[in-house]
Structure formats: structure tokens, C-alpha cells
Amino acid sequence: MPIFDDTTTKRAKKKHRLDSDFSQAMQKAFWEELKGFILRKSTRLLPFDDVKEKLDIWFVQDLGIQTISIDSIVGSEGRYRSFTRHFLPLEEDLRDRWKKVAQAHYFRQDLPLVELYKVRDAYFVKDGHHRISVARAKGVRYIEARVYEYECDVPLSKEMDLEKLAIQETYHQFLKDTQLNISRSHSRLQLTLLGGYPILMEHIQAHKHYLEKKKGEEVSIPEAACSWYDNVYMPLAIAIRKNRIMKQFPHRTETDFYLWMIQHRHQLINEHGWKVEPESMVETYARKYSGLFRKILGALKRFFGLVRY
Q1: b or e along 154-167 (b: 16 or more beta carbons within 10 Å of the residue's beta carbon)?
Q2: What DSSP string describes 141-174?
Q3: pLDDT tens for each residue of 164-205
Q4: pTM value?
Q5: How many CA atoms within 13 Å lie on the side-chain side of 63?
Q6: Which domains occur in the chain, in start order?
Q7: What is the per-residue pLDDT across 121-136, written as a single tens digit (0 to 9) for each?
Q8: Which of 37, 54, 110, 216 has the highest local Cβ count within 10 Å?
């Protein structure tokens, strides 16, 4: 007569399988954290409260039940320290709850819908962290969720991390000061490097000073920003678009290129005289920095995490 009956054996196997699944998930979390450390790239979820505070987002509406890509979930309300960016568990205390959800997943039992906050193209977990973690571990790519939408004046995407959030915080402040998102609603002045927006503000302040001398009266920052955008930024941006030069710099933006061009212009002025046309500036810069050596160097930097995006 067997010591253990079939029911006991099945229960033991099931318990072992659930424990094994959780342990494997934690092991993957360790390797994800190690890889992030080596590449100097954050592997943590974004805190939703920080996003609310830094970007002044506001609630818009309940979007109801939607099917959401798990890859687009970038943060959490309250549990951002418990899981990696890929929702792998980081704490042993999560084991029991994680196993219960995994068991329900194995037996195809219905679970409550997860709840998410939507901010532009990024999502944050309100409720259902373990359900998302288990689904992700099982290779599920999409999940049903009740979604609550928040609005924001700067773009957010699934690539958002802490460094990019800091950049978007300065972009948000830049838009508050200049009102360009209102007066020039079609403008997309996205930068990929922290510290760029204060430089843009310096350009606008200099343009403000120029306008005040020309008009003999005080000019507001929003008014100066509009004039700067129309008369300084756009001529160079049009030259950049016309030459399709950004294809050679896929990890940067048009506004990044504008800043580089302004820095490069001083060198061109010294070499060729005070008047340099925007189109010739773009062509000169492209010839100098789009060679094979620099492309290989850029690829190596991206591979080793020295250029994150």
C-alpha cells in the first residue's frame, strides 16, 4: 500500500511547482537587477505619486475595461519597490500571495480585474501587482484592466524611467513658463538629455532682451518664446527636416540637434564669417558627425549603456 495517495502526491507536486515558479521569478529579478547595474540603467518601477507631483497630472475620466499591453506598464502606486520593471518579485514576503495567484492562473480561475492609471502612453498599477507579475512570468503579453486616465502636458511612454522622468519634469516646467504648448500647440520640443531646457530658456531670455531693445518696451516670456520659436527655432528645424538628417541620429531628437547646431554655429561663424545659413550649418554638422567611425562609436556606447536612448 502506498504511503501517500494520489491526492497527497498531486498536492505536493503542485506546491513544489508553485514554489519553483516563484523562486525562478526571483532569480530572474536578481539577474535583471545585475544587468541594470552593469549597464547603468534603472530596473525599478516608477512611483506614481512622484509622477503626479513632478508633472502636475490631473484626472480626466474612467475609460472602463480595456486590453492593455503589459510592456506599457511602467510604474506603481505604492508597490514600486516590490517588483522590477518587468514585474519580477524582489521580496520573499511576496511568495505566499504570488503562489495563490499563480495557482488560480494554473486552474484558469477568474480573478478580479487589475486597475491601472493611464498617463499619455504609460500605465501605472493601482491594484493587481501580483496578478500582473504572475501573468508576465507565464508569458502573457496583454491583460484586461479597468483604466483611469490622467492628462499630462508632456509625453510619457513605456520607455520612461527615472532619468527620463527628470527630463520630463524640466520640460513640464519649461512649458509652464513659456506656454508654448498653448500658443504653439503643434510644437514638439522634446530633449533626451537632462539640462537642455535651461539652455533653451537662456536662448528665449536672450531673444526677450533683443525684442525689448528693438521695441523699447517690456516683453513677456510667453511672447518672447513665440517669437523665438517662429524666428529662431523653426528656420533651423525646417533645414533639419528638409535634409532628413535625423535618420543619421536615431537616438536623438530634432530639438537635441537644434542645441548642437547652436553650439556648432559659433565655430562656423569663426571659420566662415558672421552670416551662416541654417541649411549649410546642418550639412556641415552632418558631414562632420555622421561618418562610419562615429556611427560605430555610437553603437558601442549604446551597447554598453553609455547612451541610454
Answers
A1: bebeeebbebbbeb
A2: -EEEEEEEEEE-SS---TT--HHHHHHHHHHHHH
A3: 999 999 999 999 999 999 999 888 999 998 899 999 999 999
A4: 0.82
A5: 21
A6: 6-151 (3.90.1530.10), 162-303 (no CATH)
A7: 999 999 999 999 999 9
A8: 54
Q: Are 122 and 160 in contact (CB under 8 A)?
A: yes
Grouping H, G, I as helix, E, B as strand and the rest as coil, residue 67 is strand
Q: What angle do CA 268, 272, 276 make, to 5 degrees?
A: 65
Strands annotated E in the chain: 46-47, 58-69, 73-76, 114-119, 122-127, 142-151
Q: Are 105 and 135 in contact (CB under 8 A)?
A: yes
- Which are the contacts of 290, defined by CB distance < 8 A and separation ≥ 6? 245, 248, 249
Residue type, 213: K
Q: What angle do CA 101, 103, 109 make, to 5 degrees?
A: 80
Grid cell, residue 260, equals: 548642437
Q: Which of 272, 282, 212, 270 has its CA nearest to residue 245?
A: 282
| Element holding 15 (H helix, E strand) | helix 6-39
Do 148 and 116 form a contact (C-beta atoms < 8 A)? yes
The single-letter code of the amino acid at 113 is L
Show Cβ contacts of residue 171 under 8 Å, excluding neighbours closer than 6 positions.
Answer: 154, 189, 190, 191, 197
In eight-state DSSP terms, residue 282 is H
SS3 45: coil
What whole-number distance in Å separates Cα of residue 234 and Cα of residue 126?
Answer: 41
Distance, CA of 180 to CA of 182 (rounded, Å): 5
The DSSP letter of residue 128 is -
Number of helices (H), then strands (E), in the chain: 12, 6
